[in-house]
Specification:
alpha/beta, Uracil-DNA Glycosylase, subunit E, six-stranded mixed beta sheet, two-stranded antiparallel sheet, 8 strands, globular, binds iron/sulfur cluster
Amino acid sequence: MFLMDTGEKEFILPQAPAMEKTGRQPKAELLSQLYNRIKGCQKCPLGATRTNLVFGAGNPNASVMFIGEAPGYEEDKTGIPFVGRAGKLLDKILAAMKLSREDVYIANILKCRPPNNRDPLQLEVAKCLPYLEQQIEIISPDIICCLGRISALYLLRLKLPMKLMRGNIYHWKGSIPVIVTYHPAAILRNPSFKRPLWEDMQRIMKILKEGV
Ligand code: SF4
């Protein structure tokens, strides 16, 4: 692995990007082009207050994509998703799944930090979501895991309590299976969510192994 200097921040790309099944441009190259197109984005007011745009990180050829809500303080400082306390917990969850950040791809609904970590506004999501959708199309994972209700709300247009969304398999744009589970930050606030989250991760592993 190496760190690619993008000027504004660094993000991890694999050393030898594999070609897409179609034989077109490598996914890493497509993601890098997308990053270069959006790194100076000012389409919503969050562009003016961010320190770093948090594009997403991980393996462009990942089978599983984790999608959270928005960068927090640490993420804004570093330009890397999930690096605070919740991120460290996500690392532990991945390790329990026998995975690492190099195996998966991690991104958020928003690429810039909302002030005081407030929920994303509809206007911000309307401007930013197309970037994430392009990332999903490039990576084309076998499964997506929405971390938290905000992720499910904007990726799947689901406005339901977590307990009603968990356990179901949804499909992004009618194709890629999506599972919804708790955001790691919710586990830090309420450790009783740990068990259901682990059940959801086991479901992901089963789908990766056996298909939907
Ligand atoms: S949050 Fe998204 S749309 Fe808004 S400035 Fe950042 S990258 Fe652009």
